[in-house]
Amino acid sequence: MIIKKNKKAQEEVFGFVIIVLVVMIIGIVFFAFSIRRASKGVEPKNYELEDLLFTIQKYTTDCKINNVGLNIRELIRECNNNPSRICEGIGGNVCIFLKEELEEMFDEFLGTDMANAMIHGYFLNISSSEQIVYIENGQLEKDFIEASQPIQPLIIGEQEILVILRFYYSS
Amino acid sequence: MKIENKKAQIKIQEMAFVLVAVVFLFALLFLFFARFQLTQLQKTAEEVREQRTMTMLKVVSSLPELRCSKSFGTTTEIYCIDKDKLKVFGEIRHIRNKYADIWKSAQISEVIIEEVYPIGDIYIVYESMGEPENSFTYSTYIPLCEETIGIMECVVAKIKITTRSV
User: Fold this and answer.
1) How far A132 CA lies from chain B's nearest CA (Å)?
2) Which residues, 6 or more positions from B21, have their beta carbon under 8 angstroms from its beta carbon?
3) Chain B residues inside the 8 Å CB shell of A52
4) In terms of Cα–Cα distance, which of B70, B28, B150 is closest to A30?
5) Contact status of B125 with chain A (Cβ, < 8 Å)
6) Distance from the A83 Cα atom to the nearest Cα atom in chain B, whole angstroms
7) Partners of residue A20 in chain B, C-beta under 8 Å
8) Interface check B24 vs A, CB under 8 A
9) Contact B117 A105 (CB under 8 A)
């Protein structure tokens, strides 16, 4: 009888210990979630990308036509309308010049070594009925933000040109 | 009788331990909930600050004292900063100081416009004295343009606004 009673008491204590252990494990899991570190760095913002895309198009390049320096937007339209056009003064095809200028610009903004940066990849796609310019760099994976803007072609009635810029970042 | 008392004591002790465990569990749940609510509150505060600063970015870039004017030969206003106006704004302190109250009332401690492509000058539109604590810097891009012989030449500039925390 005494042995039976002792066994019962032991079982009760054992059960109690298990409850306490389960509560402690749940508590530790909650704590682990609640003290997760905030991400470092500032995530790129969508409005910033929209403004960047707009501003890039206003940049005045060294490529001149009729002695007037074209901005990126005008260069895109010229490349779309007349891809064999040559830049005055500096020489070189307008489309090739456009691509090189954009690549240089993004290298300046984001750096050439992007592997471990907050923004670790991007692409810029300019297309109409055909692709006009496509540049990319880094790892095009994980989270991204995107901005796009249309450009009216030089000839009314033609398909409008679409510029899409996408930044890939780690959060 | 003695055995019964002991049994009762053990039962009371058991009850006490269970109560302690339950209170501990509820305390943990409450801490977790409080932490969650705090995170939500911080997110909301961040969104409010961002909205406010986005508005200020647009206000700064739209100031008639800085923005490009109609004189650039088009019939509509162009969304850009006039480089000549900016130079005057940056160089003449008493003009800058006239706008100090606007920036202060909006909790802004610094407004800077920087040429980023090609890399060039940095123009200080406003700078408060001393280093504010808990400050946040927001930025966006804007064309910085200069009229030369009737032609507008623009570079890529970044406008940065530093605000104090809400």
Assistant:
1) 22
2) A19, A20, A23
3) 140-141
4) B28
5) no
6) 24
7) 17, 21
8) yes
9) yes
Whether cis (ω within 30° of 0) applies to the bond prior to B118 is yes
* CB spacing of A59 vs B154 below 8 angstroms: yes
The answer to whether the pTM exceeds 0.90 is: no
Set of chain B residues whose Cβ sits within 8 Å of the Cβ of A69:
151, 153
Torsion of CA B59, B65, B70, B73, to 10 degrees: -120
Torsion of CA B98, B103, B109, B114, to 10 degrees: -80
Q: What confidence tens digit (pLDDT) does each residue in A19-32 have?
A: 778 877 877 777 77
Cα within 13 Å of Cα(B51), Cβ side: 7
For residue A36, name the pLDDT band (cuts at 50, 70, 90): low
Domain limits of chain B?
Answer: 35-164
Neighbours of A22 (CB within 10 A): 12
Q: Does A8 touch chain B (CB under 8 A)?
A: no
Do the chains contact at B156 and A105, CB–CB below 8 Å? yes
**B110: nearest Cα among B50, B69, B161:** B161
**ipTM associated with this complex:** 0.73
Contact A126, A163 (CB under 8 A): yes
Between B17 and A55, where is the model more confident? Answer: A55
Residues 81-100 (B) with a CB less than 8 A from some CB of A:
none
Architecture of the structural domain at A46-169: 2-Layer Sandwich (3.30)
**Lowest model confidence (mean pLDDT) among A108-122, B68-82, B113-127:** B68-82
What mean pLDDT comes out for the span B38-58? 82
Query: Which pLDDT score, from 0 to 100, does residue B102 have?
Result: 81
Residue of B nearest to A51 (CA): B141
- Using a CB-CB distance cutoff of 8 angstroms, which residues of chain A are in contact with residue B160? none
Q: What pLDDT does A35 receive?
A: 64
